[in-house]
Write a structure and sequence with these properties.
homotrimer, 36 strands, 27% strand, 347 residues, Udp-n-acetylmuramoylalanyl-d-glutamate--2,6- Diaminopimelate Ligase, Chain: A, domain 1, UDP N-Acetylglucosamine Acyltransferase, domain 1, alpha/beta
Chain lengths: 347, 347, 347
């Protein structure tokens, strides 16, 4: 794809193209980082990006940059084709989409796919090899089910979903439009509920369901449990990374981002736009307000008001945690100082 | 199911029914929480439950309550059918079982199942689509093997087990009666054992096995490694949640409960009734006594005597940890106070 | 295998056999720990091993020991066949290999395996039941692909690899010679990359690839993401345990050892010989120098110079962390002491 064609496409996107110069209008085949890009590759820079100083040495074929005069100047100096966008990262994401258009897989039911009774398949549904679908399931138009996916009975998969190899969807789960479920993720498995008795743990039946709203993305190996009653619900546009555990009855708002290895215990509730960094833990029934950000490894054991940034375990305001962590390193000194003060004052 | 029928069933259970009133004897189809229940749903309350105040507003069809006069009075006031049980949570668990009786799947061997040589299948064993079973395996009566389960050679699955879709059982594993293994769990994979040499890591062969005793439950995506020699053993009635790592040679006692994302390193030993909350880590060869409770994110690097409640990393007694954590937040103040004291005393 | 035969084999190994006595030259069938070994089992001891005192009571058939006079004396006293090796653990690993020779599985393509177009299979490749291989893949000589493995298009699996049941390899991944990928691991899944916009998270296409260099081992359920551009690369001889998350664009050096449940965020770089203990977290783009060791649960948010041992979160030098952790337990006392000092000095 020539840079000039890419420019045309970016004009229809949301990254707000402001200016550009195609120079020799290179043929571009893929994207790359500034240091590693070859002459047939597109790269990009953001404001504040550490790589600005390396711009003059890049071998890239073309670059997307933010509206900064010095960057335009540098690009011109080395005859590097450039485009200025208000959001160059978004422009780069859109460009990768243009450079690597998704090959449409559709309309094929592999002969090894196993379908239960009363399965309804929409138009152009793709079922890969060895897919197994239980009774009374419906998979709507244009959804792609990769090889080895196992779907239990009474599941609804809405339009334009993509389920990757070997993921498992348990009975009665509802997967709304445009969801992506990555390999080996498990949706709708039994919640971990047991009643202590004299004779050991008595299993609480898990009769609820899991609902993924539209455009939810579930990471590789992530597990989302169904509850004993009611539902576990992942809000529209929420993105969940790999190896995350979502307990029974958890409800998340819209557009949350949950990084790898986070664990959310049963009954917890997240507002809209909550961001949980890697390895965060959220306790049973905790409520987290809209737009809260929890930094990595935080442990959240009590409710958090909206718009807070929290850290540590138990989680406290991030700024306080940073100061406490800095003091933590001085604990041996502190202990020594107190010993000395005690000596002085006891004299 | 009418409430009166449910009452009859509860009389044969272990939740200790003491009294009840069926009123209009509603038809119940499922369970729900107090706030969300409809007129065809059963709900329950426990002593100390925050929802007591909401009892007067519930739309539930019937309720299970603990022996408390004020609750009975409130239920009567709104003509809500009620039953008093010493253990209403257990009664609710039993009730969900009655309302949602397990559909018996049995006696069917799907034509796509692949069986190795010398496989012995007990009476009424169910094998789902695409199940693969290696040579010399035995699966005893009434066990249910869901689609896509992979069983290596020489595995024994005892009676009445249920293995969910896409879980994997490695060679020589022994799964005793009434175990449940959830989707994508892996039993008997190789322990992580390497000997450092001048030429890098030399693989220690993992020649041991994994044994699950009776009524063990293994969570979705959980991994239980086999050791280099000897066995990894999960004690009777122990319940393990999702995404847990059990290292090679770990031994657990009976009736332990291990929450999601816990990691137990090689050779660690747990006593009976140990409870590990989410994201806990247990170090190599650590011994944890009977009935120890470790709160979430604890890191246990040395032996713990029986009946302790521990927290933090390194784990310390829970009560001490709570006080230390409270002080942690004051570290900036502490540092400042010491600076001030030093100034005063140096005058 | 008789002990004398084992001795002959050890003479060709790397554990540096120095001396031995075969006594009654027992027939050995497997290995075991010192306390549990029977008369047909081999065991071993290391310098510093706590079990030295139990040597006199062992029922083992033979023992591998380090060059220590008192151990030889004890073995002789109880007529226990022994061998002295400089590295008895390595000798034990080699011995287990001799006692349990790998059964060669090869040359068999199970009739249920599903092959895409233009798949090239090398000599003696084994494909288990229900393996699915996409278009344009190549699997080179002597590789073993266990049942249920799913391989997307354009994947290269080099010679002598072993892929365990139900693991998934995404498109364009490159798996070099002698790699082992354990059950349910996923290689080359999409990195977690989204651009925040007014309309929610916009997906950054993940157009890069994952490369495993030679002799890499990937644990059960571990996930290794591909990046938006460029590659994620695991260095030669690196061993990764179960349920580890490797983010998009991570690069590791040679011979690293990464324990269970570690999470490494996008763009992080590890040098050679780095050891990360269980549940460690490494932040975005962090650089960790050669031979760094991070103890369990560490959180590494900034670059670490080579040869450091670090602990805690944020990670600090291990020795300092040990002292700080010891002081942490005294925080209530410290707070009290300061209150007292304030009282004294304000008088």
């Amino acid at each position: 794809m020539h840079f000039s064609e890419l420019i045309k496409s970016l004009q229809t996107g949301n990254a707000e193209l402001e200016d550009y110069q195609v120079c020799n209008d290179p043929e571009l085949s893929s994207g790359a980082s500034l240091e590693k890009a070859h002459s047939n590759q597109l790269t990009f820079l953001e404001v504040g990006n550490q790589l600005v100083s390396k711009l003059s040495k890049t071998q890239a074929g073309a670059i997307l940059i933010p509206p900064r005069e010095e960057l335009i100047k540098q690009a011109k100096k080395i005859n590097l084709p450039w485009a200025v966008l208000k959001n160059p990262r978004l422009g780069f994401a859109e460009s990768l989409g243009y450079l690597h258009p998704k090959i449409k897989i559709s309309g094929q039911i592999h002969p090894t796919a196993v379908l239960g009774d009363n399965v309804i398949l929409g138009k152009d549904v793709y079922l890969g090899a060895n897919v197994c679908i239980g009774d009374n399931c419906e998979i709507r138009a244009n959804s792609i089910i990769h090889p080895g996916v196992m779907i239990y009975d009474n599941v609804l998969i809405e339009k334009e979903c993509e389920l990757h190899a070997n993921c498992v969807i348990h009975a009665f789960s509802i997967i709304n439009k445009k969801c992506i479920i990555n390999s080996n993720a498990v949706i709708g498995s039994e919640g971990f509920g047991f009643v202590p008795t004299k004779n050991g743990w008595y299993k609480m039946p898990q009769t609820g369901i899991v609902v993924l709203e539209e455009e939810v993305e579930i990471g590789t190996g992530t597990t989302i449990d169904r509850p004993s009653v009611g539902e576990t619900r992942i809000g529209q546009g929420t993105k969940i990374d790999n190896l995350v555990q979502i307990g029974h009855g958890v409800i998340t708002g819209k557009d949350c981002a949950i990084a790898a290895q986070v664990g959310i215990a049963g009954g917890a509730q997240l507002g809209n736009g909550v961001i949980l960094a890697g390895q965060v833990g959220v306790g049973n029934r905790v409520k987290i307000g809209d737009h809260v950000i929890a930094s990595s490894k935080s442990g959240i054991n009590s409710d958090i008001a909206p718009n807070q940034v929290v850290s540590g375990f138990p989680a406290i305001p991030n700024k306080l945690w940073l100061r406490c962590s800095a003091s933590f390193k001085k604990l041996p000194e502190i202990t020594k100082a107190i010993r000395e003060l005690n000596r002085l004052t006891s004299n």
